[in-house]
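Annex B.
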Amino acid sequence: MSPALLPGTGSTAPPPHPNRGATALSVLTAVTQTLATAGARRRRPVTAVDRTLLVEVHAVRRPCPDVAELDLVPAGAEPLPGWRPGAHVDVELPSGVMRQYSLCGAPDDRSVYRIAVRQVPGGTGSHEMHALRPGVRLRLHGPRNAFPLATAPLYLFVAGGIGITPIAPMVRAAHAAGVPWRLVHTGRDRASMPLSDALAVLAPDRVLRRPDDVAGVPSAAELLSGTDADAAVYCCGPPPMIESLRRALPAGQRFHSERFSPPPIRDGRPFTVRIAGGPDVAVPADRTALDAVRALRPDVPYSCRQGFCGTCHVRLVEGTTVGDPAGPGLTALCVGRATDGTIVVDLGR
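Ferredoxin-NADP reductase: predicted structure tokens.
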């Protein structure tokens, strides 16, 4: 998930828009926000939520051979917290592994959270998620939203494979509000493209499902074909897709993205991580401190690999970092890099 996303506005009053649908969506967003925050003061979407929820796996479905869709219901009598399109939850698995998954169900249904998980070959978290069965209890943290749907006069939604999960609630919200929208969903083949078949039922002429095995890998120009200059473009998928769209869009056009893999390292320089009470670890220019430290200490936890979840944040004893979203006195091992060659960290274990 991308940490550099436009947060929602700070006002609950919808701004004027050129069509009724956009105004309706602004009202819907404001009302949902009010319910979700229960009157609390707005915070930046990536602010950690100190809230643990106990849920139970209610149902597991297989919309695609390698995708598990899970319904999670409250383990107690209290309804689940409200959320807005683009939100995710941190799932604490029975093994202790923590992973983030986008909510892809209905935001106004507080009786169930729905997530969809693609199994990644060799992936620890996805393998464990696919092994879950009804009746298993899990701890969730959140929900949080680093990919909020902001009000716009019209939308283009672009999803690559399992990147449809945060996009699906956005499409339904725009459709319900009467705001013009289009969806382009790509994937290696139709069997790898979950959820968008149900969205096509809403408006078949607005949904393009484009499998690579039939049409080839799409260019940015193909994905953006016919896009209005006033449209807000929302994209979730692999980094190459996101970067190609970002470069192809005109300057000033609204573009919001979320990725399910680590951001690429640009202009990286090698540095050293000195573990307090332990050895020095060399970090190559094209690797992260998390990669290098885990090669020596594989028990170091991680989750989002993009800096915002906090799982790999550790105490920074000496030195300074760049590109680091962790708070004062901390560093995010997955993205922070030493400013001057060496940092000293305390892994606390």
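Helices lie at 20-37, 124-130, 164-177, 196-202, 212-215, 220-223, 239-248, 289-296. Confidence is low (pLDDT under 50) at residues 1-17, 31-49. Further annotation is deferred to the next reporting cycle.
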